[in-house]
């Protein structure tokens, strides 16, 4: 399933990475985010072997495969109205995952969201989960393809 939307919060991460149109990045849950437990981060970087919490590199933990791990840098976030559903979707580790492909140059629409990157979110998973996510996102008026 694919959804046209935007990566939010790009302005906060300008110094961390330079996006390129057509670059693909992973979606990861951010359960340690104290402001919002449903935050879904757009990350770059990979992690092999034991995963560790990004905030503490001292000891490996048994983290969920769709959570942020050491070696991953946050490059933006999924829109808040989408994140509440994507978080639930990503909690099914055996089958569900998500990526984002940057499709254009940053914009500032003046709605208080900061700089945004046009993108296409791609979600893979079991049929039930994908149908459920598709229904939820359509109700929020996202451009589901």
Describe this structure in words.
The protein is globular, with a radius of gyration of 15 Å. It has a seven-stranded antiparallel beta sheet with strand order 4-3-2-5-6-1-7. It is an alpha+beta fold. It contains two helices and seven strands, in the order ββββαββαβ. It has one domain (2-144): 2-Layer Sandwich (Alpha-Beta Plaits), CATH 3.30.70.
Number of strands: 7
Helix-strand string = EEEEHEEHE
The CATH topology name reads Alpha-Beta Plaits
Ranges where pLDDT stays below 50 over 5 or more residues in a row are 47-62
Topology:
Elements: E1 2-7, E2 24-29, E3 40-44, E4 73-77, H1 80-90, E5 97-102, E6 117-124, H2 127-139, E7 143-144
Antiparallel strand pairs: 1-6, 1-7, 2-3, 2-5, 3-4, 5-6
Provide tags for this entry.
2 helices; alpha+beta; 17% helix; seven-stranded antiparallel sheet; 145 residues; globular; Alpha-Beta Plaits
In brief:
Helix content is 17%, strand content 26%.
